[in-house]
Amino acid sequence: MAIDPSRVPRFGHGSRVPGWDEAADLTKDPEGVPEPATTPVPEELRARIEEYMARYPDRRSAAIPALHSVQEYYGWCSPEGIVQAATVMRLTPAYLTAVATFYDMLFMEPVGTHDVYVCTNISCSLRGADDLFAAFHEHAGEDPEFNIRSFECLGACDIAPMISIDGDYVGPIAPDEVPEVLDAVRRGEEPFPERQMKNRKSTDPNA
Amino acid sequence: MTETLLLKGIDEPDLHTLEVYERRGGYEALRKALAMSREQVLHELEVSAIRGRGGAGFAMGKKVSFLPKGQMDKYLVCNADESEPGTFKDRELLQKNPHLLIEGMLIAAYAGGINRAFIYIRGEYKLQAERLEAAVEEAKEAGYIGERVLGSDMSLTMWVHRGAGAYICGEETALLDSLEGKRGNPRLKPPFPANQGLYQGPTLINNVETLATAPVIIGMGGEEYAKLGTQGSTGTKLVSVSGHVQRPGNYEIELGIPSRDIIYGLAGGPPEGRAVKLWFPGGSSAPVLTGDDLDIPYDFDSMAKAGSMLGSGAIIVVDDSTSVVDVALKTAKFYRHESCGKCTPCREGTNWTVKMLERIDSGEATPMDLDIMAAVCTNIIGNCLCVLGDAMAMPIGSMIVKFREEFEAHIEAARARNELVEAVA
Prior knowledge:
Number of helices of chain A: 7
CATH topology of the largest domain in chain B: Rossmann fold
Structural class of chain A: alpha+beta
Strand order of the largest sheet of chain B: 6-5-9-7-8
Strand content of chain A: 5-15%
Strand content of chain B: 5-15%
Largest sheet of chain A: 4 strands, mixed
CATH architecture of the largest domain in chain A: 3-Layer(aba) Sandwich
Order of helices and strands of chain B: HHHHEHHEHEHEHHEEHEEHEHHHHH
CATH architecture of the largest domain in chain B: 3-Layer(aba) Sandwich
Distance between the termini of chain B: 62 Å
Structural class of chain B: alpha/beta
Number of helices of chain B: 17
Oligomer: heterodimer
Helix content of chain A: 25-40%
Largest sheet of chain B: 5 strands, mixed
Distance between the termini of chain A: 41 Å
CATH class of the largest domain in chain A: Alpha Beta
Number of strands of chain B: 9
Largest interface: A-B, 51 and 69 residues
CATH superfamily of the largest domain in chain B: NADH-ubiquinone oxidoreductase 51kDa subunit
Shape of chain B: globular
Shape of chain A: globular
CATH topology of the largest domain in chain A: Glutaredoxin
C-alpha cells in the first residue's frame, strides 16, 4: 500500500522518527493462531471462508478470497476481520496482514462505500485521464461515501478515459460529466448505461 | 483479414451461456479431442505451432510436452490476470465467450494428463469473473467438468480464483505464489512450472487467448491452422489498439499483416491532422517504434528483428501532440508502483528512473542524467528474478535512444523557464 510521504514524521536532519509506521512492539509476545473458542466469527463469514478453503489442496490458497470476504463483510480489512479469518483458516493474523498489504484492492483502512477507480495509466492518460481524476478528487475527494482512487491499467483502454464504479466499467467519461456520474451512483443508478462495458459491442468489422 | 476465429459472432446475445454456445457448435472440439488419443491431441497442438499469446510467445505445444508423464497431480493454470497496460483482449473473451476458454482448458488438460485446473482472473474484472464462474458451474452441471468427462478417462476439477490487484501476478511464478495464498513474489527459474509449479507439482500455465484457441485448432486441424499467418507466427491474433486512434478496440488479425493496416486500416489512425509519433507494439513493456516503422509486418519474428516485441498484442499509439517525456514518466511510474520489491535492481532502478524523469521534467536535470538513466536500464535487464524491471528498462531505454534530442530540448527548455522565473522573482 502506498504511503503518503508527507505523513512520515521526520527529525530536523531528515531521518525518520522511530515507530512512524507502527513497527512491532517488542515488549509483546508474538501473536499466534487465534483461539477458536474465544474468537467469535460471524456464521456467514465463516461459511464463506470454509467454502473457499475446500476448493484448494492447501488451505492457505484461500487467503485472498477470505480477505475479499472480510472486506465485503466489514467494508475494509479490519483488524477484527483479519483475526476472524485467521481463526477460520488456522493461520496467524500476521500472515493474512502480510498478504493483504500486498494487494491494491484490499484496504487496510476504512474507505468510502462506493469504490471509484479512475484509470490513469498510459492509454487513458493520453485521452485525458489525469484531468478526469482531478475532477473526481475535486467533487468527491472528501465525500465519505466515495473511495476515489487512481488505478493502474484496468484493461479497458477501448473506452478510455474510463472508471470502475464498484467493479462496473464505464467510459469514456469527460471531466465535466463527473457530477452526473456521482449523482447517479448516489441514487443507486448506473451512470451512462449506453457507455457501460457490459453493453459494449465489438469493434472488429468481421466479428 | 477475411476470417475471424476467436471473435466470430462474439456479439451474439447470450453467447456466454451454455445453451447458445452449444447451439453454435460448442464443445464439439472437446468431443473430437476426447475421441483421439492424448498423443494425437498434443501432436495437433504442436503442428499448429501456436505461440503463447500472453507476452513471451513460447510455443504452446512444446510447453504441454514438457509436463512429466505418469500418474500424479498435475495442474493447469489459466493466466487471466490481464494487466499489461494497453491490453484488453482477454477481457472480451472472458466476458462474451467464457465457454470457449473452458473448452480450450479441457482440451489442454486432456493433452497434458492434467486433473486440476484453476483460472486466476484479476480482481478488477468483476463482470468477467461472474460470467466465468457461472459458465464453469454450467459446464460442471452438464458433465463437461468433473469425473470421467463425457465417458472418457479424463477427470478434472476447475475453480475460478480472483486476484486482488497486482500487475506482478501476471508473471507466471508470481501468479503461482499468489494462487498459493502468498504475496505475489516471483520465484527463481529454473525449476520451471512444468516441473515444479503450483504446490510444487507439474503445472501448465497459459494465457486466456492461447487456451481459447485450442478448440479452434482441434476443430480445423493443426496443419490447417498453421497455414494462417507466417511461418514463425502462425494463426490469428487478437490485437488491442488504444491511445491516439479514432476507433480503439479489439481486432482479430492474421499475423504478418503490415502494422499500418492495423493502426490506420482497422483503428482509423490518429485524429485528423496528427501523425503517429511513437507506438508500443506489444503493451507498455515493449520497446517503442516510431512512425517510420509502420510498414513492419505484425508478427513475433519481425517485431523482434525491429528491436521490439509482439508481447501481448497491445498497440498503444501516441501522436505528435504528446511529449515523449510525459509518456516515459507515466510508464516508469507504473513499473515503480507495481514492482514487488523483491529484487534490488528493479525496486531501486524503477524508483530512480522516475526521480530522474521528474528532474528532467522540472528542469533540474543535465543531459548526463540521460546517460545515467540509460545505464540504470542496462543494469536492470537480466539481473532480476522476473522481467518486470526489464519491462520498464526496455521501453524507457528505447525512448532515450530514439528521442534523445527531444529529451535534451525538454531539459533545456525547462531550465531556461526556471531561470526566467528566478530572474523575475
